[in-house]
Specification:
Elements lengths: L1 H7 L3 H35 L3 H17 L1 H11 L1 H20 L4 H15 L4 H7 L4 H12 L1 H20 L3 H7 L2 H13 L4 H6 L3 H14 L4 H10 L13 H5 L3 H27 L13 H9 L2 H10 L5 H21 L5 H24 L3 H28 L4 H21 L16
Helix pairs in contact: 1-14, 2-3, 2-6, 2-7, 2-8, 2-9, 2-11, 2-16, 3-6, 3-21, 4-5, 4-21, 5-6, 5-7, 5-10, 5-11, 8-18, 8-20, 9-10, 9-17, 13-14, 16-20, 16-21, 16-22, 17-20, 18-19, 18-20, 19-20, 19-22
Length: 441
């Protein structure tokens, strides 16, 4: 199969798949960015306490954790393509409920549905990785993780345009974000095929061969090379295995626990930093959407692209572990600098978000690479579930019980340092290694 994927190269089909993966992966950052400014607004509108208001974000994050089982199994037993459409459809429904919520608890339910869908946002990313030649997998995957910049910037820009120019309502802002999952469903249904790696792992050789032929024609591969790719696609990359319980298999691997630690803590640090920055750029300290400096927030969010540029440059050499560990270290230093300034500190905030982006790129990339094809969907979904736990903890501490600013800084700093250590302890470097050859127990 690896030979077949290499012969297909990177063409029109991979570009379309890259677009879908970018759209769906960006949905998480859209939701987190929206929550950073909308939770205070809805708390005020529905007349609930700050602790009750934090329930919105906590529900989202816990629902993401709960979604790891259904979406993980869906990715491994139903396929990457169907899981992508399912996750996008569920999010679209959640946004509709949240935008029309007549009460605070219906709003919580709507965002809970959104959180559930976020457990499936890695399915198209896994599908893309399984369709990329080894030599291109690192840098192309970094481009997808950059969708967090697109999602964050889109959320803040939509908030500015809708709130300032169309309707001063958080409901309108929420509804506007439904454009992304709708587009993801349409493109996936019309263009994307199932992963031939996954089909082969399910002993569906004829279907895997058909997908390879379709991709070859889309990429205008030479007929002779198309035949060679189709023939190679029926040869398994690794010896067939029977894994009856993905969770039981994953529980025996050291990498699985390190990956979950990384995802939980870097997500806590990322969301915590997002909340800190949003609070700093609240111009009058009121729980009102109109009091946020959306222009400054958009600039800080867009600055994250520099972190992905850094990852793009170094993701193959020195490699994933270096990018993840160094990103966590820079985030730690920027956080301390941000805490020491009494001004808005837009440049320091931008550096923190940039470092967060580098860490995120490494975490997203290394998770699928350390897992075998037949449990890759479940393992990645579990990792994103632990990310939800980290986000929930940040929401509870920062919005719910409102711990002091010094405690916020300290908690994020600890998360950054532990993430750094976990990256260093990962079993091996996976740069330029074929997917299943990178597996380490």
């Amino acid at each position: 199969m690896e030979k077949a994927i290499d012969q297909l190269g990177f063409g029109l089909y991979q570009y379309a798949l890259l677009g879908v993966a970018t759209l769906v992966a960006g949905l998480s950052s859209v939701e987190l960015s929206l929550l950073s400014v909308l939770v205070p607004c809805v708390t005020r509108e529905f007349g609930v306490s700050p602790l009750e208001g934090s329930v919105v974000a906590i529900v989202v994050c816990l629902a993401q954790f709960a979604g790891q089982v259904p979406f993980g199994y869906a990715a491994d037993f139903l396929g990457r393509r169907h899981t992508t459409m399912l996750a996008s459809g569920v999010m679209l429904c959640g946004l509709a409920v949240a935008a029309a919520a007549p009460s605070f608890w219906v709003l919580c339910a709507g965002h809970g549905v959104i959180g559930l869908s976020l457990a499936g946002d890695m399915a198209p990313f896994v599908l893309l990785q399984e369709m990329l030649p080894t030599r291109l997998r690192g840098r192309v995957s970094v481009v997808v993780t950059g969708s967090w910049v697109v999602g964050s910037t889109f959320a803040y820009a939509a908030a500015y345009i809708v709130y300032r120019l169309i309707s001063p309502s958080w409901r309108a802002v929420t509804a506007a974000c439904g454009v992304l999952p709708l587009a993801a469903i349409a493109v996936t249904a019309c263009v994307v095929e199932e992963s031939p790696r996954w089909l082969l792992s399910r002993s569906r050789e004829s279907e895997a061969r058909r997908v390879v032929r379709v991709v070859a024609r889309t990429n205008t591969v030479h007929p002779k090379e198309e035949e060679e790719a189709a023939a190679a696609s029926s040869t398994p990359l690794i010896a067939p295995r029977t894994i009856e319980s993905p969770f039981a298999y994953l529980a025996t691997t050291r990498a699985f626990y390190l990956l979950n630690t990384i995802w939980c803590l870097f997500s806590f640090a990322y969301f915590g930093t997002t909340i800190l920055v949003a609070d700093r750029f609240n111009t009058n300290g009121q729980d009102d959407c109109g009091s946020y400096n959306f222009a400054a927030l958009s600039i800080v969010a867009a600055a994250e692209i520099s972190g992905y540029a850094y990852a793009f440059a170094f993701i193959d050499a020195p490699g994933r572990k270096f990018v993840g560990a160094s990103g966590a270290g820079v985030a730690f230093a920027a956080l301390l600098a941000f805490a020491s300034t009494s001004s808005e500190g837009i440049l320091i905030a931008a550096l923190a978000r940039s470092a967060n982006g580098a860490t995120a790129a490494a975490a997203w990339l290394v998770a699928p690479e350390l897992l075998p094809t037949d449990v890759r969907g479940t393992g990645v979904a579990v990792a994103t579930g632990f990310a939800g736990l980290g986000d929930a903890l940040a929401a509870f501490l920062f919005w719910g019980i409102r711990i002091p600013a010094s405690a916020r800084i300290a908690s994020i700093a600890i998360a950054d340092i532990v993430s750094l250590v976990a990256f260093v302890l990962l079993p091996r470097e996976t740069a330029r290694v074929t997917l299943d050859d990178a597996i380490m127990i």
